[in-house]
Amino acid sequence: MKDLKSICQLAVVQAASVMFDKAACVEKAVRLIQEAAGQQAELIVFPELFIPGYPYGMTFGFTVGSREAGGRKDWSTYYDNSILIPGPETDQLSQAAAKAHAYVSIGVSEREPHTATLYNSNIIFSPTGELLTRHRKLKPTGAERMVWGDANQDYFPITDTPWGPMASMICWESYMPLARAALYQKGLTLYISPNTNDNEEWQATIRHIAIEGRCYFINCDMYFTRNMYPSGLHCPEEIDNLNNIVCRGGSCVIDPYGHYAAEPVWDKEQIIYASLDMNQVPASRMEFDPCGHYARPDILELIVHE
Asked: How far is it, in rounded angstroms, from Cα 156 to Cα 148?
């Protein structure tokens, strides 16, 4: 393993989107990047689909074999507020990352410029503002498949950072064992997880992954409430049936031994700051290195079609 910069100053942004409003979401993201930079953050991480929000509980009028005109209108609004990559919104985020002199990871609903398909994507900017990587969610989960398509490129992009290889897996992608192994094979030290998982079981999952991958697991969850949905949607009864707090958060950081480097934060917006001791990563692999001395490539082989 290459020498790593000893400390990573991390900011995990647990914040609510301005739902279905890409311009306001970008404006809020820029403000929060500036706030984190004021605390000397070198890596700033946002949740899944921060732009333009996660439409939790909405069906967009889909049922098996049929769909409703009102739901199509809501989907069109969401489509219009999804972003092109690159595009004017990524230009603004690029400028914010450069001004902050920080790596910035953020989840977005990506609008494909030629086919009109949407993708649940995560993008990472460099401290100079360069758009380094885009990762599209391999398989949208459950009813998400009615909104976003399967990734057709950008499966396992790696960002080379001073703290080692960094990559993202979006939400339930982290339940795909072979996808995790594909990242471990690349020597991952920073595992970013933008997600919408505020349940107890997820906390067990992320601690296991940190131990399994011998890496830092950056768990960036969402926080938002029922009254944050935009007015004028064609499915008000779906929104009315939601809990007042739709997603509780639970963002945190796990070290390579499965311990909390930053405890979970619940039921509020907050930027979580942590100083990550990157020397823990190689030290943790002394007795277990999943794709190094603890692997058996003569018996087991993973083939990745990138």
From this structure: 18
